[in-house]
Amino acid sequence: MGQPKPNPWVMTLAPYVAGRAKVDGVEKVVKLSANESPLGPSPKAIEAFGHASAALHLYPDPDSYELRHAIASAHNLSPDRIICGAGSDEILHVVAQAFVKPGDEIIHSRYGFMMYPVIAQTLGARAVAVPNKDWKADVDGILAAVTEKTRIVFLDNPNNPTGACLPKAEVERLIAGLPKDCVLVYDAAYAECVDQDDYTDGADLVERYDNVLMTRTFSKLYGLAALRIGWGYGSPALIDPMNRIRMPFNANVLAQHAAIAAVADKDYLAHVNAFTIKWRTWLAAEIMALGLDVVPSQTNFVLIQFPDDKDFSAEAANEFLASQGYLLRWLPGQGLTNCLRLTVGSEQDNHAVVALLRDFMDRGSYPSP
Ligand SMILES: *Cc1c(COP(=O)(O)O)cnc(C)c1O
């Protein structure tokens, strides 16, 4: 008797693991494991969401026409080069579906967004992980890893989970060294809260290079993670094939309307960014004062390094914080066994996490009951 046979590469795929959201025996938890916004979306986005719910019986606009135009006008971009999707995750998948086939290679940083190897494997392609340099992507390492099978290089800049960010000159050097038929997917999920001067969000690169796709999201600083809405910006050589294969109604009605209001509300975004920068700086300083290392962050999270000592390890700290209702992200699967990633939370939660970490560092894995 035969049975349905999945493609051979499917059954060896290790699925994406999302940030922890509950702990057994702890009733109220604070989730600081998925880089969600503690401030939530613009009130104008919530209002638009409410109005849009009158049209739940209608299919969404398959071209996200109004949203593309709202994004274009907020960022001064060409609306024809924009593609919207169910989170930037979908955009990352669609570009790979359009350009990668079984046996091809995609390159990503070892410490990079964990979806990249998952995407490669869903397509039967090989994910090539290049070690980072100073917590950032290593441009020379990536260029040395390129072969004639390389179809895509995924570069998250700033980097998740390290929070580090490459200067524009390094990104330019990467593009200049890549073959023209290899797509650079420049994932700028945290572009809004970067304050380093020599940064590019990638839009200017898209204008100059047909093989660069910039991706952006409404999930992080815009606080709309639940709605699944993101977008890409690229030349027709990228956007046209992507539009052919994406699902026609990939960006839902509620998401389109909330995002249109969110992207227009620049004051609210400025408020969120100022809050994020203030508290990531505060968290880094407070945590370093406890004797821990923190990677300088350009994002809404900080990566904390713990000592190589089992009583003061990242794993022990993670369990202690979880038992107190604070959920961080431990990433041993990625080789970051000694680190925890902490999302910037509310003022109160930031203070609470630092107090708990202080407690932990005073006593190690034997906190008093
Ligand atoms: C969160 C994140 C994304 C995905 O966001 P969506 O919710 O799918 O829009 C993409 N890239 C990086 C680096 C991220 O951190």
Order of strands side by side in the largest beta sheet?
2-8-7-6-5-3-4
Query: What molecules are bound to this protein?
Result: pyridoxal-5'-phosphate
Number of helices: 12
Q: What string, H for helix and E for strand, traces the elements in order?
A: EHHEHEHEHEHEHEEHHHEEHEEEH
Helicity, as a percent range: 25-40%
Any idea what the radius of gyration is? Answer: 21 Å
Tell me the distance between the termini: 59 Å
Strand content: 15-25%
The shape, in one word, is globular
Structural class: alpha/beta
Largest sheet: 7 strands, mixed
Record the SSE blueprint.
Blueprint: E1 30-31, H1 43-52, H2 65-75, E2 82-85, H3 87-99, E3 105-109, H4 115-122, E4 126-130, H5 139-145, E5 150-156, H6 168-177, E6 183-187, H7 203-208, E7 212-217, E8 230-233, H8 236-245, H9 253-264, H10 266-288, E9 293-294, E10 301-305, H11 314-323, E11 326-327, E12 329-331, E13 336-343, H12 347-363
Parallel strand pairs: 1-11, 3-4, 3-5, 5-6, 6-7
Antiparallel strand pairs: 2-8, 7-8, 9-10, 10-13, 12-13
Bound molecules: pyridoxal-5'-phosphate.
Pyridoxal-5'-phosphate (PLP) binds at residues 35, 87-89, 113, 156, 160, 187, 189, 217, 219-220, 225, 230.
